[in-house]
Amino acid sequence: MIGKKSAAAAPLVVLLSCAAALTTVVAATPAPPDPINVLKAGLGQAIVLFNDQRMPLSQRREKLRSMSLQYFDFESMAKSTLGPHWRNLTAAQRDEFVPVFTQFIQDAYLSQMEQATVQKIRREVNTANVRFLRQTYFSPDYAEVFSTVALPDQKNPLEIDYLMHQHEGRWQVYDVTIDAISLVSNYRNQFNRVIDDQGYAKLIADLQAKREQLQQYMDQEARNAAAP
Predict the structure, then answer these.
(1) Which residues of the chain have pLDDT under 70?
(2) Residues 67-74: contacts with CB under 8 Å, at least 24 apart
(3) Among candidates 165, 131, 163, which has minimal Cα distance to 145?
């Protein structure tokens, strides 16, 4: 069974929340393309787009999907979530799994964003203390960005770290941890359990069923938004 959509969405919703506090700084100060500044710039662009109420909701969604492909290496994430099972997949199964996983993650965070109203996100961000602490390089092409986010009604700030690598000439995120819980590891545990117990076909069916549920929810939200 695939976990609730909030499990996938939490890191990405926090990313967008952080971006609201960073947008002005990013716009005012062009930065070199090191991991921390690439991350800040991407977050700033995403929150501006998300808050553009002049653009139809469906169009904003598609732009956010496209933007996420620039900053997240979904192919690497997809491979990692399957762990050793990836080696056992046929070429056709690998070609099937990567886009299904990518779309599942995208739908999860888009639906979570829409569940939380723009007003709620703005209210939380206005009182949030967002701090990008540092970046550490493991090699010229691998790095980790460390940050904390203090949110209202939470005693301790969230520790949010981004694992990034150079992929196709740009820095991209290949895992996110919140309070030491890895997005990739979380899904690897779930996916491996499904494959071990019921097989790869069951995992694909579960992901596609979850996507259909998320799509139905977002379609309803779009209808609500278009209603007078």
Answers:
(1) 1-32, 112-130, 221-222, 224-228
(2) 67/42, 68/12, 68/106, 69/102, 70/42, 70/170, 70/172, 71/38, 71/39, 71/42, 71/172, 71/173, 72/172, 72/173, 72/174, 73/165, 73/167, 73/172, 73/173, 73/174, 74/98, 74/101, 74/102, 74/105
(3) 163
Tokens 């290496």 belong to residue:
73
- Residue 99 three-state SS: helix
Q: How far apart are the first and last CA of the chain?
A: 38
CATH of the domain at 129: 3.10.450.710
Number of domains in the chain: 1
**Which two three-digit tokens encode residue 63?**
């732009």
Residue with tokens 């977050």: 43
Q: What pLDDT does 225 receive?
A: 61
Q: Is the overall model pTM greater than 0.85, yes or no?
A: no
Q: Which helix (H) or strand (E) holds 144?
A: strand 142-150
Angle at 43 between CA 79 and CA 191, to 5 degrees: 25
Contacts of 33 (CB under 8 A, 6+ apart): 170, 171
Instruction: Report yes or no on 96 lying in a domain.
Output: yes
Pick the closest to residue 111 from 4, 189, 20 (CA basis): 4
Residue 227 belongs to a domain? no
Amino acid in position 5 = K
Could you tell me which of 32, 97, 47, 101 has the C-alpha nearest to residue 72? 101
